[in-house]
Design brief:
With 329 residues, this protein is of the alpha+beta class. The chain has 13 helices and 12 strands.
Length: 329
């Protein structure tokens, strides 16, 4: 058993002061990921700082955007009327992500920072560069059906598990942080790192930094948006491929604006910038959608068990965009 101390913070400055930037301290939200990792001895913190008492309000902004407190539960965010009306892809992503019991506990901040569900990461007898740098990666030649096809490296082929983060990436979300050096903000799409040769360094957070809020910009066309998750079973399963999309069409049927992000395919929520660029100004047709999907997946590389995900991702992109245009072809 790994001994640790527990402290409960009343606000962000108190939490940061308790953690003191220590690598041995962890912020505790709903605990739906961290407690599992502690149980498996993957995480061995010496201190837990409970941050569930931090602000968790969900507040529309005057400009039409939305500010979400990091302690908001996934259930509250998915049920919020403003979210369901103005950002339906976010509500759908959260509802696809886990059981109701887990959504009731999980916080927005914790969801963003959850770690991979790669079986080799959880198995302390397996070689895993993410858990122990330099150990190797058993997933590359092991069971890798759920692993990355984009942005992977020889050191790591794990995927980020969050559904909510895929929607947030598509929505141009900004993450607000506070820490020993003071507050700062970063785009959610830039928060998570690709593995490179240091897959153990998963985000751009500095020691002791804490997520305090997430902001969504006003995107009027996000009312026309959706999230689709392809998985091996209908109940509580991680994505093989997921697609978050929002679409704005001009009067002549061409794509005026589009937001597109993929899940289940990379070490981070994958903003599909190449597909977005290929779609703007093009007819909103299955042919254009397929061409955009081909552009996005051009650099994809499959492993023994997951090469099928390349074609699956392309088809899911086409299906989701076709659904948003009312064309099921």
């Amino acid at each position: 058993m790994n001994p640790f101390t527990y402290e409960r913070a009343s606000d962000a400055p108190a939490a940061i002061g308790l953690a003191k930037g220590s690598a041995a301290a962890r912020y505790l939200g709903g605990g739906t990921n961290l407690v599992d990792l502690m149980r498996e001895t993957v995480e061995r913190p010496e201190m837990l700082v409970d941050v569930t008492g931090l602000p968790g309000g969900i507040e529309p902004r005057a400009d039409g955007g939305l500010r979400i407190g990091a302690a908001a539960t996934n259930t509250a965010l998915a049920a919020d009327a403003h979210v369901r009306t103005h950002y339906p892809l976010l509500a759908r992503a959260i509802l696809a992500g886990a059981s109701a019991q887990i959504r009731n506990m999980a916080t927005v901040g914790g969801n963003i920072l959850q770690r991979t569900r790669c079986r080799y990461f959880y198995d302390t007898a397996a070689a895993c560069n993410k858990r122990q740098p330099g150990a190797g990666c058993d997933a590359r030649d092991g069971f890798n059906r759920y692993h990355a096809i984009l942005g992977a490296s020889p050191a790591c082929v794990a995927t980020h598990p969050s559904d909510m983060c895929v929607a947030l990436a598509a929505l141009d979300a900004t993450v607000h942080l506070d820490g020993p050096a003071g507050p700062r903000s970063i785009a959610l799409a830039d928060l998570h790192r690709l593995p490179g040769d240091r897959p153990d360094v998963e985000t751009e957070l500095k020691p002791g930094e804490l997520i305090t809020a997430v902001e969504l910009p006003p995107l009027s066309f996000a009312r026309r948006s959706t999230y689709r998750k392809v998985r091996d079973r209908a109940s509580y399963a991680f994505a093989l491929v997921s697609v978050a999309a929002a679409l704005d069409l001009a009067d002549d049927g061409t794509v005026r604006e589009v937001r597109l992000a993929l899940g289940g395919v990379a070490h981070k929520p994958w903003r599909a910038s190449a597909a977005e660029a290929a779609l703007k100004g093009r007819p909103a047709s299955p042919e254009s959608f397929r061409a955009a999907a081909e552009a996005e997946l051009a650099a994809a590389t499959g492993l023994r068990d997951n090469a099928f995900k390349i074609e699956l991702a392309k088809r899911t992109i086409v299906a989701v965009l076709s659904d948003l245009t009312g064309d099921d072809a």
